[in-house]
Amino acid sequence: MTAHPDPHAQNGLLEWVWASGPSEGALHGALTRRPSATAHLRRDSADTWLTLVHDVWHGHYVVGAMLPGPDEIDTVISEGPACVTAPTIDAIAAAGRGRLLPDYAAKLQRGQLAAAEEDLRWAQESYEPGEILEPFDPALAGALARFRSQAPRLITHVRRRQARQLSEHEAAFLDAFEATLESDGQNDTVAMSLWLTEGDQLLELARNPDRPTLAPPAATRPVPGPTPTLSAARSR
Questions:
Q1: Mean pLDDT lowest for which of 35-39, 134-138, 195-199?
Q2: Closest by Cα among 195, 184, 220 to 132
C-alpha cells in the first residue's frame, strides 16, 4: 500500500494513468477524489503496473492500468485498457485477471510493436546497407539498443501465441535469431546486421500471431558492412 497524504503526490500519480478514457475513467475519478492510500501491483518481468483504489464515494474497488515505465511513455498507444470495478476484493481480483490483464498485455504489445516498427523503418530509410561505420551514430545506436531489449519479448510473444502454427522454417528462424543475439555478446555490428536485414521478418511474425507468415528465403540477404555512412540521421 502507498499512502498519499499530500495532494501533490496524488496529482503526480494521475500523470501515470494509462486507462481507457482517463479524463472520465473510473480510476482517474477515484484518484481525483484523493484516496488516502492506493495499492500498486507490479510485475516487472511483464512490464505490468496496475493500481487498486478503494473508491469510498461509490462503494467499490477500482483497478486500472498505469504506464509501465519511463521507456514506454512514448511508445504505448494513446488509449489504454479499460478499468474494472467490483464491490469486493475477491471480485476485483477476478475481474483483473479475467479482463484487465489480458487487455493490458495486448495493448502494451501493440504499442511496443509499433515503436519497434517505427525505429526499423527510420533506420532503413536513413541508411543503406554497406554505409554504416562504427561507432554508430548516437540515434542509430539508441534505436539498436531498443531493438535488443525488445527482441526477446517479441520472440517470446510469437512462441507463446503460435506454438501450434509455426512452420519448421519459422521455428528455425526464431531459434537462429535468438541464438545470434545471445552469442554475439557486445558485438553491435552483428546485432545491427541482424536488425536491418531480418528485423522485418520478426515484426511480421509478432504482428500476425494467429497464422504462419514466413516462407523459406529464396536467397541470402546482404549484410551491412563497416564503411562510412553517407546518410544523415534524423533527430530521435
A1: 35-39
A2: 195
d(CA 54, CA 63): 9
Measure Cα distances from 209 to 110, 154, 178 in Å.
11, 11, 18
Phi first, then psi: give them for residue 88, nearest 5 degrees.
-130, 165
Q: Which of 40, 34, 28 is nearest to 2 (CA)?
A: 40
- Report for 8-12, 74-78, 136-140: range of highest mean pLDDT: 136-140
> Tens digits of per-residue pLDDT, 64-107?
888 876 555 555 555 778 888 999 999 999 998 998 888 888 88
| Site of grid cell 478499468 | 83
The model's pTM: 0.68
Kindly state the DSSP code that residue 43 receives in the 8-state scheme: E
* Cell 496496475 sits on residue: 50
Q: What is the rounded CA–CA span in Å between residue 165 and residue 171?
A: 10
Residue 39: half-sphere exposure toward Cβ, Cα within 13 Å: 11
What three-state secondary structure class fits 188?
helix
Residue 114 has which C-alpha cell? 509499433
Cell numbers at residue 201, please? Answer: 521478418
- Grid cell listed for 26: 473510473
Closest CA to 13 of 188, 24, 2: 2
